[in-house]
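Q: Structure tokens for this one, please.
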Amino acid sequence: MAPTPITVGFRLTFAYTVALLPHRQRNFCEVVGSGDPSGYDLVVRPGFANAGVQDAVDAFFTLAAPFYNVDQTTFDGWLLESLDGGEYVFVAAGTTTAVPGTDADFEIANGLCLSGKESDNSFMPMYLYEGQFGRAFKYASPDSLASVLRALTNAVWNVDGTATDVDQYAWRRSRNGLFGQRWLADIVDTNEKLRRVRRIK
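A: Here is the predicted structure, written as tokens:
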């Protein structure tokens, strides 16, 4: 089955580097011009108020901070691009005030998937890599999540009903512009591509 065509207008990328290896966490979104330091606000789902791109970036990295070693990781900032004729075109970029927040060593070639579905019932996962996510496991109940993972999961999937305007739940969209509907599980496991890149496979 072919991938769903991308029809949403913008892509917001969060960039970070772990032990010299760059990583990207990409999100589809819609934006409008604003007085935010980035120059743009994210267009959110009903029930929320449009949030500044810079505010959303800082909120994301603050939630990611407890998983990343301050001496081994840098939070490199963000990139906003628009989809134009099938290609992404630079719109804006910037840094973040958030910094990594743990002294625990990075976990080589591992990954965290916050799995869920959008309102058209297609999968809409969010991935992070090489953080302090723990042993391989599947967490399918909010009560099974450690507090920092529960906070991140809430920001992406609103599992506690307390997501805010800056959280990905409010503004993150699927390839065809739909919002996330329901969380399925958080999954921690090794990543085969990263194992090859790190030359441990």
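A few notes: The longest helix spans residues 53-64. Residues 10-197 form one domain.
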